[in-house]
Amino acid sequence: MPRIAVFISQRLVKAVFVVLAIAVFNFFLVHAAPGDPAAVMAGEAGAADAKFVEQLRQQFGLDRPLYEQLGTYMGKVVQADLGYSYRQQRPVFDLLMDRLPVTLSLTLTSFVLALIGGVALGTLAAMRAGTWSDTAITVVGLTAYATPIFWIGLMLILLFSVNLGWLPAFGTESIGAGYTGWAAFVDRLEHLVLPVVTLGLFYMAVYTRLTRASILEVRDMDFVKTARAKGLPEWRIVSVHILRNAILPVITVAGFQAGHLIGGSILIETVFALPGIGRLAFEAVLQRDYQVLLGIFLLTSVVVVIFNLLTDLIYSLVDPRIEVAP
Amino acid sequence: MSNRLRYIRQSLTAAALAAALATPALLSAPTVAVAQERGGTMNIIVQPEPPILVLGLNQQGPTQTVAGKIYQGLLTYDFNLKPQPELAESWEVSPDGKVYTFKLVKNAKWHDGKPFTAADVVFSTSKMLMETHPRARAVFAKAEKIEALDDYTVRFTLKEPFGPFLQSFEVSSAPMMPKHIYDGSDYKANPANATPIGTGPFKFKEWVKGSYIHLVRNDDYWKAGKPYLDDIYFRVIPDAASRAVAVEQGTVQQTQFNDIETFDVPRLKSLPNVEMTTKGYEFFAPLSWIEINTRNKPLDDKRFRQAMMHAIDRKFIRDKIWFGLGRPATGPVNSVTRFYEPGVKKYDFDPKKAEALLEEAGYKKGSDGTRAKVKLLVMPYGETWTRLGEYVKQAMKRVGVDVTLETTDSAGWVNRVSNWDYDMTFNFVYQYGDPALGVSRTYVSDNIRKGVMFSNTMGYTNPEVDRLFAQAAQTNKDEERQQLYSAAQKILVEDVPVAWLLEMEFPTFVDKRFKNAITTAIGVNESYDSVYMVKK
Q1: Chain A residue closest to B172 (CA)?
Q2: Which domain of life is it from (chain B) (predicted)?
Q3: Pick from A172, A271, A286: CB nearest B409
Q4: Which residues in chain B have their CB less than 8 angstroms from residue A50's CB?
Q5: Domain limits of chain A?
Q6: DSSP tag of B299
Q7: CB neighbourhood size of B98 (10 A)
Q8: What is the C-alpha to C-alpha distance for residues B483 and B357, in angstroms, rounded to an integer?
């Protein structure tokens, strides 16, 4: 068997145990929070009696001992059953699948935007280190990185939708407008612009800074000087010689971010009223909707494990000096 | 006399309802009749998103606002809490206050086409709600017999007179549920829960979770020619700042309850496209207070609690924290609801009196100027309560009481308060149109029940208060009830089991093009069958 196949299969076997361990850990974590879904619902109803709370606990299975609940939960997990949200009266899997398209269209678009834009800007800044364009990129990057993301979102809403009226402020579509086909697509795209830019700006700043710093380290190395001495065109030196050597830290961070794409962004989804997974998770925490929360945790941990593996593989592709070793 | 039934019949035309709305613009205009045209779409904020829409199974605030358009009750209530017909067109009460007979409207239909009859009323009140609805359970448990005399007549025979019985029939207190769908099923697991079926003017169309709920006009609605609107969209916008923007931009045409943070209210009030009203909450009549665990020292001392009433400036709280919304509370009953007693002991804002009371109770100033230390668990229901916590800390510091603020989320809050694990916290509770429904539960000693929220979590006990509340609930003679409740209020205000803060008001913002939105004491939970849009 080729080494790469051994590597992947061994990592996958380990991953199964990692994910199961995470599931057990998550279970205790969510149950460690004070209160339970029945208490939350009693609080929301504004009136309650003992029977009400007791009925809810029974329905949610919370009247069983904790180890029994864990057993039930793990039994379902190994069958890839994410459970049922009694609060929302729907299977957790369905809830996640409802929210996934919104979250992915937000996080994937901004991820791609941030990665391409960040690397490009970072390269530009590093190659012109010390000039005004470098300063400008660095200052903008630092500001975007340091400003709270929800504040940027609100300011963009104020500017582009309240004052200028160019873009819709929130939601995923014009509700009740009845668009179809191309018009519906454009409408959805318009709704995506502000949230994608808001979220993208933050990560773009991260990639810009990383790329810049790492290029500055590489660009004066001997092999770059050699390439220059050979008379290679500048774009080739930058893209093949410098960038390829400088990109590893960016891949590390990108792999890390990619693992969290599916988790969505609580702040962006809240400010822009997008029905994504981030908000689902946040509300599940407040409502102590254990099943939903565990489902999101599990899904996220699986994705993180997969992307860690992918990142390792990409390392060896980009830098042949790194070998995959089981 | 004994055979004669007291006969009550009220019927209000849509025109009278419109007059009751009495927006200044309508009043000042000459008598130009505005045509109530069909058509129009209304976007209303719903926040937080309800878990399900079946009102018989879930009675959270947002559920009521949405499901109030789908389901209906037998009665509704005008701004003075007088019963008004809804699914019951008339009703009679026997002189001994034990037999209530309701005549139902004859042409009401469920959204699936089946007729609405007395069997549905009997099923809802004697079976389903008894199982699923805590407030309805408390009321209908008083009934000895609930029977259908014919298809359109229902008779409730009570074990003993129960004063607030007629106050218990609005849509959220006793929503009528379809017998043909729920009878014999596991209510909570019924597959029909995903597509609620009611008798109301709007039918459930679609629910995109996390985004919006779409209701459409019920063309077979039992009131001829109604409703006027084509659609209502309930939009979920979780961020308070975004909600304010949605009002400013005209994306939504109505907000209610806590949708708009108090500090945004003055700004939105000045917008040209919306009108603000605080009417339409009389049935809920929320009252806010500092809930005090009277089991803990020094809070067990009445003088300490009275000192708190003097140390806290409720007018300041109203003006600076709630930006003018609400009225400083004088006692346990909200003045807009029934049986309010104004002649109770007054607690003026007077830190000197507070200090004198603390001295008298033996809480002398220590070397650091502190008389006592208490903890305050801040209610996790938004920014405004956090600010209130900071104010109370400051105000109590002035009289030498050191307050430590504690924070938690809503699950933690309910868990700690209902299990008596707190010193002081904030709370606000609805009064549901009658002291026997919404007031006594906080103060009577047989409602001291660990683990149950909105019970007597303070552990306050006073046998005289227990007696007065019990006696007042067992009669339906209003004068007699007033005397008993007045006596109870006087004792409570002297004892200060909780430190009352405000009779709360909520701002409802409605787009000026939409008329007749707020016409009754249940305001935004009303069916909206008479709401219409003025097209320019």
Answers
A1: A45
A2: Bacteria
A3: A286
A4: 449, 451-452
A5: 101-275
A6: T
A7: 19
A8: 30
